[in-house]
Specification:
heterodimer, A: mainly beta, 4-stranded antiparallel beta sheet, B: globular
């Protein structure tokens, strides 16, 4: 399964609601996770199984979707959210999206 | 807390083998699944394979002829060996834990950058 993330680069302001998208080439059956990675750091699990929030992750992060289309939303962007976000499917094999780089406007 | 730390050479010559170690603290590798993932320059990421709590393995078919993942339970470490290295294997290599076979990785190491160059 190939994953296509959009946009590849997103500029937004503090307080904005932002939405990142991940589209699979086949049905993912909700076996989708989202990670945040800051420069030089390990990837951090944000969301698993489409919409389950990992322990310790702020509630401004949420996930949704079904079938082939999934989204990660940040309800109110904070400066510390500047990072690259990538999706990961584990329904059929294991593949990663190419990432969305989120920056402050 | 579960912590993973990769170690290994930062520079490997083409045609040689790459050997990396993942040292795990705070959790036994005789439980769950322990994987290797790499991130290429340009940010593409690739799932390489994992070793299970019982020592069985699963590999990415694209790497199957070159990869081996083993472990030393007495040291709570697992290892990656990748043979016949080329410049296309230049990447940052991560080890990580998955709670289930068909699962996501919840804890990751910081990663180790490996450059393949003569």
């Amino acid at each position: 399964i190939q994953l296509t993330q959009s946009p590849s680069l997103l500029s937004a302001s503090v307080g904005d609601r932002v939405t990142l998208r991940c589209k699979g080439s086949q049905n993912i059956n909700n076996y989708l996770a989202w990670y945040q990675q800051k420069l030089g750091e390990a990837p951090k699990l944000l969301i698993y199984n489409t919409n389950s929030l990992q322990t310790g992750i702020p509630s401004r992060f949420s996930g949704s979707g079904s079938g082939t289309d999934y989204t990660l939303a940040i309800s109110s962007l904070q400066p510390e959210d500047v990072a690259t976000y990538f999706c990961y499917q584990y329904n059929n094999g294991y593949t990663f999206g190419a990432g969305t780089k989120l920056e402050l406007k | 807390e579960v912590q993973l730390q990769e170690s290994g050479p930062g520079l490997v010559k083409p045609s040689q083998s790459l050997s990396l170690t993942c040292s795990v603290t705070g959790y036994s590798i005789t439980s769950n699944y322990w994987g290797w993932i790499r991130k290429f320059p340009g940010n593409k990421m690739e799932w390489m394979g994992y070793i299970t709590y019982s020592g069985s393995t699963s590999y990415n078919p694209s790497l199957k002829s070159r990869i081996s993942i083993t472990r030393d339970t007495s040291k709570n470490q697992f290892f990656l060996q990748l043979n016949s290295i080329t410049t296309e294997d230049t990447a940052t290599y991560y080890c990580a834990r998955s709670l289930t076979e068909r699962g996501y990785f919840d804890y990751w190491g910081q990663g180790v950058m490996v450059t393949v160059s003569s």
